[in-house]
Amino acid sequence: MKGESNKRIRALVSETGAEVRTVSEDQMSVFAPTREVLEDLLGRVESILQEEEENEEFEVGAIYPVVVKDVRDYGLIVELAPGVDILLHKSQMSHKFIIHPSELGVTVGQTINVKYYGRDPVTQRHHISRKALLSPPAQDSGSTVVQTLLDSFTSTSPHTDKHSKS
């Protein structure tokens, strides 16, 4: 179970007065005050888990519109799909270095496009990038000067004045 689904299920358990105990890694026991409460709870949990499963079908390399839910110091919390809120780290927002996401004028409620890169196999976190959809910045004059100097060194012949006698 992922974070958001886990929160929703815990809230349901608390709301109904039910009790959940872990039996094994993939099995739990649920105790409820009445049979009706138990059946209702299990139906609602199944619905949450089904929704989670449907949301797992993201295509690597696809471009998705996401809604900005929160602006934080380290990036944006965006909604990739209903119930799937993830982090768009500030390093993946722009080609230029930014101190805070607000520098880009992004606001809560705004829709932006991101490229989906899949899930980390260890942490199970989704990876997305807005930067991957933006054109790379033009070279500034400082890097052009450096490149020109590098080109001038590599274009000189390696035989200059080594073999000539005066």
UniProtKB/TrEMBL annotation:
PANTHER family: POLYRIBONUCLEOTIDE NUCLEOTIDYLTRANSFERASE (PTHR11252), POLYRIBONUCLEOTIDE NUCLEOTIDYLTRANSFERASE 1, MITOCHONDRIAL (PTHR11252:SF0). It comes from Geodia barretti (Barrett's horny sponge). GO terms for cellular component: cytosol; mitochondrion. This is Polyribonucleotide nucleotidyltransferase 1, mitochondrial. Signal peptide: none annotated. InterPro entries: NA-bd_OB-fold, PNPase, S1_domain. One of its GO terms (molecular function) is RNA binding. GO terms for biological process: mitochondrial mRNA catabolic process; mitochondrial RNA 3'-end processing. It holds the Pfam family S1. SUPFAM superfamilies: Nucleic acid-binding proteins. Residues 61-131 form the S1 motif domain.
